[in-house]
Design brief:
- By secondary structure, the chain is an alpha+beta fold.
- The chain has 2 domains: 18-130, no CATH class; 134-190, no CATH class.
- Helices cover 23% and strands 33% of the residues.
- The protein has helices spanning 26-32, 136-151, 169-190, and strands at residues 22-25, 40-47, 50-59, 63-70, 78-90, 96-101, 108-109, 111-114, 152-156, 159-163.
- Strands 2-3-4-5-6-7 form a 6-stranded antiparallel sheet, with helices on one face. Strands 1-8 form a two-stranded antiparallel sheet.
- Strand 6 (96-101) and strand 7 (108-109) form a beta hairpin.
- Helix 2 packs antiparallel against helix 3.
- The protein is elongated and about 55 Å long.
- The chain starts with 21 loop residues before the first strand and ends in a 5-residue tail after the last helix.
Length: 195
């Protein structure tokens, strides 16, 4: 009883990824006009169409001030005020690009993550992207679905039918052969014969 991996058969990988954390993207804030000095408002997140949290923000000329509450392991809510400095770099063809300066390591980044109490860069929290956590079989299944959606008019749950309208027949045949080869590799991988 209790051999290697016992009790964990249902867990694939429990390491948090960037998608598991709340994020603040400076590119989105700039595009929506929220980054202008003097602006203030609320950033909110949803997960599975349910509210997942919100924070208040205030913009200044060279910094963003975040006000929110945080609790550790279900304890009491604690107020947090965090200041994140902003820098600019010139683009090659004019205009400027804005960056957050990570409050922990001074790394210039476009997205900050709430991996714990503070919003920091991905490197400080050692957060991998979700795609980095996928195995070879997962990537192959994802590629098959992408190709299936591209070539079939009706595609769902790994099965497709009816060639996309307007797609040249030779192009479809070539892509379908690739799709079929991927399907064979996936079935071999599921059967444990994948290299």
């Amino acid at each position: 009883m209790g051999g290697k991996g016992s009790g964990n058969w249902y867990r694939w990988n429990t390491k948090s990824t960037t998608e598991d954390c709340k994020q603040i993207d400076i590119r989105l804030m700039k595009r929506e006009g929220w980054l202008n000095a003097g602006n203030s408002g609320t950033l909110s997140w949803k997960r599975n169409n349910n509210p997942w949290g919100d924070i208040e923000y205030r913009c200044y000329e060279d910094k963003l001030v975040l006000d929110y509450r945080h609790r550790i392991n279900g304890g009491e809510w604690q107020p947090v005020t965090q200041t994140v400095f902003i820098s600019e770099t010139n683009c090659n063809f004019g205009n400027v690009r804005h960056w957050f300066i990570c409050p922990n390591c001074d790394y210039r980044c476009a997205i900050l993550y709430a991996g714990s109490q503070l919003f920091l860069c991905r490197k400080c929290y050692h957060l991998p992207y979700t795609s980095q956590m996928k195995g070879e079989l997962d990537r192959l299944i994802e590629q098959k679905h992408k190709l299936g959606n591209l070539i079939f008019d009706d595609y769902s749950y790994g099965d497709g039918w009816l060639k996309k309208k307007g797609m040249h027949h030779k192009t479809f045949q070539k892509a379908y052969r690739r799709y079929h080869e991927m399907n064979i590799k996936i079935n071999m991988g599921i059967a444990g014969e994948f290299n």
